[in-house]
Design a protein that fits this description.
This protein is an all-beta fold. Helices cover 3% and strands 55% of the residues. Mean pLDDT is 91; it is low at 1-28.
Length: 638
């Protein structure tokens, strides 16, 4: 009986240890969603845009008057109480007058829409103050027929409106640039790409990295619908040539990350573009999206009629949260620095306004403690603050852990005290720890982990014979490849690995201290060979990748830290201006910032600094409370 009690207690302790929560480190809650309803009239009312200015939420759209007659509406709500503060209504005609875009900032509330005051669609631009008093109202008609604004963006001084106008029998593109202070027209671009084609602009965006105006819309030629995109300079001249893909509609807006990558939704699929507006991918994530994707600090948010979907930058789903009330005809998504806001129409015809507490994109620091325990701490990209305390994972390791973040998980691999290899992960949205599983094989050094954009993991180790071996983990089936495979060559230390441009990149320290670099094609796992890099290191190297650019960090023979970048080819070595370390550095990139962490010269302290990848400036070193007896390890959203 005593043995049964002891076994039961041990099982309970095992379960508690292996299903622990990361409550002191990572953001440990799913995106919290709150909502409130609003019903402007008994009829069918549709919200088209949402903005936040100060303490208020502004929702613009149309309201029902009678069959065939709708008017403009802007509803102003308190952010704190969700109470309606004021309602602005305007009915210029007896037709279906509609607001299609809105912007709210510290200069006013700007509305783009159309009315039927002349018996055909009339382009209308309106400016309101914060209390919804009308300041300016301008309209533009077209002698040949309809002219409709469908989208609007703004910079500091100007608003840009895109849509279409009818020229004879064709629909053509139109962009207007106006002063924000009085809505005066600065310039207009009316153009078409092909004769006898119906074309129109649905989405505009301003890329913060290139300062160009991105234009997306439709083009129908010979009854074949296509989505077209093209970049403009802000003087409305062409910056790029038009590009096409099959499709008929673009939803919402274009969202940009810190590096200038753009994200849009084409026919319910997510399109990713590089900063020069070249399409990288078009992916179906298994949800028919009704909004554009919104990028916020490491993650993308998008909405279907039933779910809020959160993805990493590789479009792997991190979490999917059901909407309390299903919606259709959703607005844009808006981030005010704290929350995401969007609105839609319920099946009962009510407006549903949603408020989302975002996930915190975080830099995770994982170290081996003085007692060989495994500890981690997180730096939030949202507010640049560290989690209050170190969190401890079950288990121990005599060397540095390996870690990589992918598809909403932080995967961790460690060497056990018996040289066995153990693997686990932390769920980024719940903080739940998976527990350790033992991977067959052994290593005398720290393992290395890398993730491909589709979430496949590569675990690479130094074998007991100094040869290099790897296994592949498939998260979709939660399974490993059957056997370890050998990579030609050998190393006397832990390897470093990263995936970029469809290649698994491997860097090792040779027995002579030289640095060797090899590549394996991910598709087919084809080894491409080794080359020697100039320089040497007395420690293991460290690799990380971001936006298909790799960053290599090593400790020099003088204990200083040296960096090298690969962007299809290697650049020269760069010495970090200050600081030394007795072990390899750790690197991570987020946006346009390179993070550098090291073990201090005392063999215990943890220091970190940053490098701005735009202006190339380094920060000062900062000491972080805590200690490690091995080199630190980093994981960050891809």
């Amino acid at each position: 009986m005593q043995h049964r009690v002891l076994i039961t207690l041990l099982l309970l302790l095992f379960i508690i240890a292996n299903v622990s929560s990361a409550s002191n480190g990572l953001d440990t809650s799913l995106p919290k969603i709150s909502w409130f309803p609003y019903d402007p009239t008994p009829g069918i009312d549709t919200p088209y845009c949402i903005e936040v200015w100060g303490d208020y939420i502004y929702v613009g759209g149309n309201y029902w008057i009678s069959s065939g007659d709708t008017g403009f509406i802007v509803a102003k709500f308190s952010k704190s109480t969700h109470a309606l503060v004021k309602e602005w209504k305007y009915n210029p005609s007896s037709g279906k007058d509609t607001i299609t875009g809105c912007i709210a900032d510290n200069t006013g509330v700007y509305l783009a829409g159309y009315d039927f005051s002349l018996g055909k669609a009339v382009w209308r631009i309106i400016k309101l103050d914060a209390d919804l008093n009308k300041l300016y109202d301008d309209n533009e008609s077209n002698i040949y027929g309809d002219i409709k604004p469908l989208t609007m963006v703004a910079d500091e001084n100007y608003i840009y409106i895109g849509g279409y106008y009818i020229s004879w029998i064709d629909y053509n593109f139109i962009i207007e640039k106006r002063f924000k202070n009085n809505l005066a027209i600065v310039g207009t671009s009316k153009y078409y790409l092909k004769d006898y084609t119906d074309e129109g602009i649905e989405v505009l965006g301003i890329n913060p990295m290139t300062n160009t105006l991105w234009v997306m819309g439709w083009s129908i030629y010979n009854n074949q619908p296509n989505v077209v995109w093209q970049a403009f300079y802000k003087n409305l001249s062409f910056a790029t040539s038009p590009e096409y893909t099959s499709g008929s509609t673009v939803q919402g807006r274009i969202s940009f990350d810190e590096t200038g990558r753009g994200y849009a939704v084409i026919n319910g699929k997510i399109a990713t573009f590089d900063k020069d507006f070249n399409m990288i991918s078009l992916k179906d994530i298994g949800e028919t999206l009704i909004t554009h994707p919104l990028y916020v600090k490491g993650y993308l948010y998008a909405v279907s009629s039933y779910n809020l979907v959160v993805m990493d930058r590789n479009l792997n789903i991190v979490t999917k949260t059901p909407l309390p009330v299903s919606i259709q005809n959703a607005t844009n998504l808006f981030f005010d620095g704290v929350n995401i806001y969007f609105a839609g129409v319920s099946s009962a015809g009510q407006w549903i306004i949603y408020i989302v507490d975002v996930l915190k994109g975080e830099l995770s620091l994982i170290v081996r403690g003085g007692n060989n325990g495994i500890y981690y701490r997180a730096l939030s990209y949202l507010d640049n603050k560290w989690s209050a305390n170190w969190s401890k994972l079950p288990g121990t390791t005599p060397t540095s852990p390996a870690a990589v973040e992918s598809a909403g998980r932080i995967y961790i691999a460690v060497r056990g005290g018996d040289n066995s290899i153990y693997f686990s992960y932390i769920n980024c949205s719940t903080g739940a720890f998976s527990g350790w599983i033992k991977i067959g094989g052994s290593t005398p050094s720290s393992p290395a982990l890398a993730a491909s954009p589709d979430g496949m993991l590569f675990l690479v180790v130094r074998g007991m014979d100094n040869h290099i071996y790897y296994r592949v983990y498939y998260p979709s089936s939660n399974s490993w490849s059957n056997n370890w495979k050998n990579i030609p060559g050998s190393t006397v230390d832990a390897p470093a690995v990263a995936v970029a441009r469809g290649i698994l990149h491997v860097v090792v320290r040779g027995s002579d201290g030289k640095i060797w670099y090899g590549q394996m094609q991910v598709s087919g796992e084809i080894w491409l060979g080794w080359t020697s890099l100039p320089g040497s290191t007395p420690s293991a190297p460290y690799l990380t990748s971001y936006n298909d650019v790799m960053y290599l960090g090593v400790r020099g023979s003088d204990n200083r830290i040296y960096l090298r970048t690969w962007d299809g080819a290697w650049y020269s070595w760069e010495a970090v201006p200050t600081g030394t370390t007795p072990a390899r550095p750790a690197l991570a990139v987020y946006g346009n910032t390179l993070y550098i962490f090291v073990q201090g010269s005392d063999g215990r302290s943890i220091y970190y600094m940053t490098k701005d990848l735009i202006n190339k400036k380094y920060s000062s070193w900062i000491i972080l409370p805590g200690s490690t007896y091995s080199a630190p390890t980093l994981a960050s959203p891809p």
